[in-house]
From TrEMBL:
It is an enzyme of class 3 (hydrolase). This is Putative pre-16S rRNA nuclease. The keyword Hydrolase applies. GO terms for biological process: rRNA 5'-end processing. Could be a nuclease involved in processing of the 5'-end of pre-16S rRNA. Residues 7-114 form the YqgF/RNase H-like domain. The lineage of its organism: Bacteria, Bacillati, Actinomycetota, Actinomycetes, Micromonosporales. Belongs to the YqgF HJR family. CDD domains: YqgF (cd16964). It is found in: Cytoplasm. Gene3D superfamilies: YqgF/RNase H-like domain. The keyword Hydrolase applies.
Amino acid sequence: MGHFSPGVRLGVDVGKVRVGVAVCDPDAILATPLVTLARDLTTDDEAVPSDIAELARLVELHGSVEVVVGLPVNLAGVHGPAAIHTKAYAARLADVIAPVPVTLTDERMSTVVATRRLSERGVRGKRQRAVVDQAAAVEILQSWLDAQRRRTR
């Protein structure tokens, strides 16, 4: 089996309006919510969008060794428009934060699971909308971390 190295990683849930961000501890065991960023939808190809610039700042601030971006694959395993958009976002992010790698991972159902878990904890309505993107980023990063550990046993 391969070797999974520890290190702080960011998990990212890219939405049309917001970007949820999670962070894990230096031992890469537990993902926790970090922040929700507003998407910068300006179309200037030259300028770095403010959400990507803020992600780059967070990578540096936390000393992240990798960024894990959730890829919204549909239940049939097909890459639809959302997945194509997310791939483009991840590529732009990778250009900005190089040499820190950006990894895409299947995020199927992450928002559904995050919404259900928040509801079970009594977080609903506006309060839920404010944190669901972070919770989805936690699901994405935690699932990825758990899978990496399973692969290296």
